């Protein structure tokens, strides 16, 4: 085991690159950055400080059949620090309040707390769970469920196979899944949903235009009471159930929603909150 302590009275830029294992980062009200490296190859991990950048770089795997190096990196950084990780197969957790983040992983779970800046996550396979992103969010996953409680700005999520669950999003959102259910609890701007197979559920669409394309799966959209709605809905083999009452033309400055829903096979249900 190797341990390091760096004087960092301000938020840092943490960069961590390991082949396999685990990266666990906690952002706290501290004036130092503490790093603990565990694993059989802990002595081969380079931990350095250059300005406000703290770097953790594990040994490289040599050749296709080279031995993998499993490393556990446990790090505590000042609140508001930026995070960048690059792993082959490792779980990544970030607990606390961070700035921006760029996370790249071949496989492994990604868990995060609050981020005040933009967040980009690219993973081949593994679940992605984030609490809150105050900037823009971009997630691309080959396979695995994605769950995000809140995005204050724009949001783009794409997964080959897996469910997507988004709590609330403040600006434009684009969600795509090859196979899996998609749920948005609250949307307040233009939203695009696409799925090959899976149910789509928008529990509260408060404003903006919603565009839905689904090959197979049911679609359900809920609109707040009294909100004017323009709809264009079609399905090749499915039922359409429209429970929205006529609200008339929107007054100047009044919120309204626009719905364009298309499915091949699947029921469509439009309801009022």
UniProtKB/TrEMBL annotation:
Protein origin, superkingdom: Bacteria
Species of the source: Luteipulveratus mongoliensis
Pfam families on file: DUF4097
DUF4097 domain residues: 22-270
Protein name according to UniProt: DUF4097 domain-containing protein
């Amino acid at each position: 085991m190797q341990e390091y302590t760096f004087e960092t009275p301000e938020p840092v830029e943490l960069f961590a690159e390991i082949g396999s294992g685990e990266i666990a980062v906690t952002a706290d009200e501290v004036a130092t950055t503490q790093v603990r490296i565990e694993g059989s190859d802990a002595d081969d991990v380079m931990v350095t400080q250059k300005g406000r950048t703290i770097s953790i770089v594990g040994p490289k795997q040599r050749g296709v059949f080279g031995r993998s190096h499993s490393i556990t990196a446990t790090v505590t950084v000042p609140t508001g620090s930026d995070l960048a990780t690059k792993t082959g197969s490792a779980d990544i957790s970030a607990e606390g309040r961070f700035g921006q983040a760029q996370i790249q992983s071949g496989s492994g779970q990604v868990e995060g707390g609050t981020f005040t800046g933009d967040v980009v996550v690219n993973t081949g396979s593994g679940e992605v769970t984030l609490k809150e992103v105050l900037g823009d969010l971009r997630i691309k996953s080959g396979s695995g469920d994605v769950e995000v409680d809140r995005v204050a700005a724009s949001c783009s999520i794409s997964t080959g196979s897996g469910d997507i669950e988004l709590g609330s999003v403040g600006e434009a959102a684009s969600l795509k899944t090859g196979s899996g259910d998609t749920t948005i609890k609250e949307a307040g701007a233009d939203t695009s949903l696409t799925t090959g197979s899976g149910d789509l559920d928008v529990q509260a669409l408060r404003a903006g235009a919603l565009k839905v394309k689904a090959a197979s799966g049911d679609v359900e959209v809920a609109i707040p009471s009294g909100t004017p709605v323009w709809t264009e809905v079609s399905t090749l083999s499915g039922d359409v159930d429209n429970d929205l009452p006529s609200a008339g033309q929107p007054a100047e400055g009044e919120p309204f929603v626009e719905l364009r829903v298309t499915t091949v096979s699947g029921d469509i249900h439009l309801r009022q909150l």
